[in-house]
Amino acid sequence: MLFSATLLNLINLFHDFDKSNKFSSKSMTIAFLCTTEFLVIRWFQTKHLPVSNLYESSMFLPWSFSLLYVILEFRNQNGLSGPITAPSAMLTHAFATLGLPEEMQQFTPLVPASQSHWLMMHVTTMLLSYATLLWGSLLAISSPSIYYSDTKDYCVLDSKHNCCSTSSKLNTLSRINVRSFLYPLSSNLKKCQLINRLDRWAYQIISSGFSLLTVGILSGAVWANEAWGSYRSWDPKETWALVTWPIHATYLHTKITNRWMGEGPAAVASAGFFLVWVCFLGVNLLGIGLHNYGWML
């Protein structure tokens, strides 16, 4: 279902077909329900929230992408969230089911430190923050990509780096046959509106992800103090989470204070995108630390 949703969303991205948009929305909804069913069954089998190893966490991540899609799509119903969330959910699901060895897909009893009520609070919050920050970062990166495709000849940036209306541009073309520019200007005006909308969404989604990340870090510190008697042990995953936090804080700061739009925030979002993946998978590739699930390439 995730593959079909991805394919339909990519088709709808280049060709605005109403039917493909409806089918992709239904496919993502069905995929969300199926993943929810899997997690619930796994929960009953393991007697704990299925986020205790890399396989379960990697299945929880596409569920988070699908959940975000369902919430935003049923709220806006414009089909703009699918081209990012559907491929992200499909790739993370494929990694969990096809990329991990079978022995890692088996459930194992929780270690004593993980047998805590903080498991649900901390891990789910962190995974939801990963999905939200990844999605928001991709939206932030897509805005300048669309602008520099072919919009820059007609759509201009104001002093705050916002993509503004092309009406001011028409004044400079007063001595030119404006009729020949009418269609591209109209087309690029719509593209400017799309860029502004994506940029606004990116800011809102990264703000939500940043809040979840903050709660996740704080709850993890409290849990660590209860389990090991220290709020921080400088575990690799803890360290990278602390590096990720100021990067996204920088992005939000530039948006709030300067209302920047374009390459600057996109570059910061790109760094944040990379760091989130380091937090999620980097520790497992290194094979060290308290958060390591025992898999090393």
TrEMBL record:
It is a multi-pass membrane protein. The chain crosses the membrane at residues 119-141, 201-224, 267-290. Signal peptide: none annotated. Keywords: Chloroplast, Cytochrome c-type biogenesis, Membrane, Plastid, Thylakoid, Transmembrane, Transmembrane helix. GO terms for cellular component: chloroplast thylakoid membrane; plasma membrane. Residues 51-291 form the Cytochrome c assembly protein domain. GO terms for molecular function: heme binding. Its main location: membrane. GO terms for biological process: cytochrome complex assembly. It is found in: Membrane; Plastid, Chloroplast thylakoid membrane. PANTHER family: CYTOCHROME B_B6 PROTEIN-RELATED (PTHR30071:SF1), HEME EXPORTER PROTEIN C (PTHR30071). HAMAP family: CytC_CcsA. NCBIfam families: cytochr_II_ccsB (TIGR03144). May interact with Ccs1. Belongs to the CcmF/CycK/Ccl1/NrfE/CcsA family. This is Cytochrome c biogenesis protein CcsA. The lineage of its organism: Eukaryota, Viridiplantae, Streptophyta, Embryophyta, Tracheophyta.
